[in-house]
Amino acid sequence: xxxxxxxxxxxxxxxxxxxxxxxxxxxxxxxxxxxxxxxxxxxxxxxxxxxxxxxxxxxxxxxxxxxxxxxxxxxxxxxxxxxxxxxxxxxxxxxxxxxxxxxxxxxxxxxxxxxxxxxxxxxxxxxxxxxxxxxx
Length: 136
What we know:
Layout: E1 2-6, E2 9-13, H1 17-30, H2 38-42, H3 56-61, H4 65-91, H5 101-114
Antiparallel strand pairs: 1-2
């Protein structure tokens, strides 16, 4: 667990750093043109080919049982992580489109690309990822 200051209101986080970073990304996108990163966001892909984004049709097209299981597990894990972060996203008053599972999948894909191997996998670290994304 860690303490992170968002809008001068302390929120106890039990999220993994990659989840916090994903929420921070969505929060920054929520600012729209007011965000200094807005020009960068305009050039990001609209979707990613990650297992968590696979629908039923894509999953079944994999044909191999283990591959199907892996895709289903990725979707289940992504939904679980989204549900864990949902309360924080609502507290931040993100716009409804940014609260969706689809937005979460996109942001997760973006985080995987920009922060590959740079985000610690445990939740025992300080919330240093927020410092570049959140308003003080």
